Amino acid sequence: MMASVFLSRAMGLVREMVIAHIGGRTAAVDAYQIAFVIPEILNHVVASGFLSVTFIPIFAAYLADNREEEGWKVFSIIMTGFGALLLVLVGAAEWFAPQLVDLFAPGLTDPAVKVDAVRMTRIILPAQIFFFAGGMFMAVQFTKEKFFIPALAPLIYNLGIIVGGVVLGRQMGMIGFAWGVLAGAFVGNFLLQWYGGRSVGMILSFRFNLFHPDLKRYVLLTLPLMVGLTMTFSTEIFLRFFGSYLSGGGIAALNYSFRVMLILMAFFGQALGVASFPFMARLAAENRMGELNRILNLALRYLALVIPFSVLFMVLRYEIIRILFQHGQFDPADTAVTSNVFLFILVGAAAFAAQTVVVRGYYAIQNTLFPAVYGTIAVVASLPLFYFGMRHLGAAGVGLAISISAIFQVLLLYVIWSRKTENRESRGVYRFYIQMILLSAGMGGLMEGFRRTVLSGIDSGAFSGSLITCVIVGILFAVLFISAGYLLKITEIIDVLHRVRNKLAGKKMAGVGK
What is the pTM (predicted TM-score) of this model? Predict the structure, then answer.
């Protein structure tokens, strides 16, 4: 799962590079990003993004009681009921797409941009049906502890977008990418996952029963998630809502920066959260809260390693954006604007990674209500921050608001969790994060000073110059990171280094054997 999430984020980065090449940092790219707002809201409303955390405990209970046949009936009932609801909602959204775009992107003033946003919204909307069905198919595979085929879904989805953009982009512009979204969702999230579900014995039938007790239980578990505002979901919406008030290309700069930051989140956090959840749910079901807390605390300590890597990216922000995006329609001025936004987005990278684990602690004990209510209150409370940032700092201010909001939300969520579960080891987690922040600040100061003095003669405006700067500063970071791990005896850094070394040694031995 870690390899899949990282590869999907890497392919997502390639996708953004293709978008930047064809669309640059323009209003057309803004329209494409706005086209995702309504589909993502629909996805949120039917809770298809939460199927794994709500359906898995229900279905797993049937497997544990040797009542798999009844479990498939419940699976079919949920699939039929929520699938019908989604079909109705998609149809309504298709019809009212112009009005909905006005509602969720009120800052749009260019009629042509609005027309493109509405057209692409209507193309992307049906993909939510494939995401919902595929989410159900993946949930049963997770319950059967099969991860390979679900791991392919995001890879094929991103590949579909890339192919759609490359093949159709020259003739259709950003609309080609919208068709790629629909095709990628159909193949990767629906067809392939249907095959994966069938391979684990999935039995799907048309069953419409609104009164089944487990359907009611599923609704009670997912209802808070449907109406609540999660951190990631609100970020995606606010990025576009407040970005619609910025000058052309503001949303594009925010999106490019956010997607690169998600590479860090994916590599460290998202896979860890997804893969650990079934085990956390089992420990919660067995009332072994001490072990659950131990796993959660350990995961958070490892996720603190996101902080020094975030600082490395901050130091190399201009060079990273230059290498990734400055080609085709993306020019040096776009690089300067986007790299400035990237700096502020990176401030919240560790918080986004930690959130993927912390929130699953609540889901493991089947408490979906509190995170949803808390998240909604926190999101509403952050609105003035977004408004202030947008008015006074533009796109960079929206990026800073995203980061501050994320840090505040995940910190308070973990504090409350620790008090509720008597998590005595939480103080050690706080101390470790403070230690990593101070260490990373020192490393960042050394790397920034080195880049500005020793490497001042290298032209970072050129691709080769940016690449050379990244390589040299990256080597310096590795030396500082490894040295800090051993000199300060930071167990997490040493453990990661040993794991990497063992993996490399294992591959080398495998090569010798061949």
Answer: 0.79
Tokens of 160: 């579909």
Nearest 10 degrees: CA dihedral of 230, 184, 250, 110?
-110
Query: Could you count the other beta carbons within 10 Å of the beta carbon of residue 483?
Result: 12
- Cα R_g (the chain), whole angstroms: 23
Q: How far is CA 104 from CA 40, 118, 213, 390, 457, in A?
A: 12, 12, 36, 16, 47
Q: What is the enclosing helix (H) or strand (E) of 412?
A: helix 395-421
Structure tokens, 381: 């409370």
Residue type, position 241, single letter: F
Whole-Å CA distances, 40 to 28, 36, 45, 47, 233: 19, 6, 9, 10, 8
In single-letter form, the type of residue at position 478 comes to: A
**CA 502 to each of CA 7, 302, 479, 512: distance values in angstroms, whole numbers, following the listed order:** 22, 18, 19, 15
Residue 245, φ and ψ in degrees, nearest 5: -85, -10
Q: What is the mean pLDDT of residues 292-313?
A: 90
**CA separation for the pair 57, 360 (Å, rounded):** 12
Structure tokens at 490: 């930071």
Domain locations along the chain: 35-227
Q: Residue 117 has what pLDDT? A: 92
Report how far residue 329's alpha carbon sits from residue 306's, in angstroms, rounded to the nearest whole number. Answer: 32
d(CA 28, CA 345): 23
pLDDT average, residue stretch 277-303: 83
Beta strands in 176-287 (DSSP E): none
Contact 231, 405 (CB under 8 A): yes
- 7 or 240: whose pLDDT is higher? 240
- pLDDT interval class at 448 (50, 70, 90): very high
Q: Is the Cα dihedral 271, 274, 280, 282 positive or negative? A: negative
What integer pLDDT is reported at residue 512 of this predicted model?
44
pLDDT, mean of residues 205-224 = 72
164 with 173: CB under 8 angstroms? no
CA atoms of 265 and 255, how far apart (whole Å): 15
Q: Quick one: pLDDT at residue 212?
A: 74
Cα–Cα distance between 14 and 110 in angstroms, integer? 29
54 token code pair: 């709500």
DSSP 49: G
Report the range of poorest mean pLDDT among 82-86, 191-195, 494-498: 494-498
- As a whole number of angstroms, the distance between CA 299 and CA 294 comes to 9
Instruction: Give the number of other Cβ atoms within 10 Å of residue 125's Cβ.
Output: 20
Residue 251's alpha-carbon distances to 27, 35, 59, 105, 390, in angstroms, are 8, 12, 40, 11, 12
Q: Is residue 7 scored above 80 in pLDDT?
A: no
Neighbour count for residue 428 (Cβ, 10 Å): 11
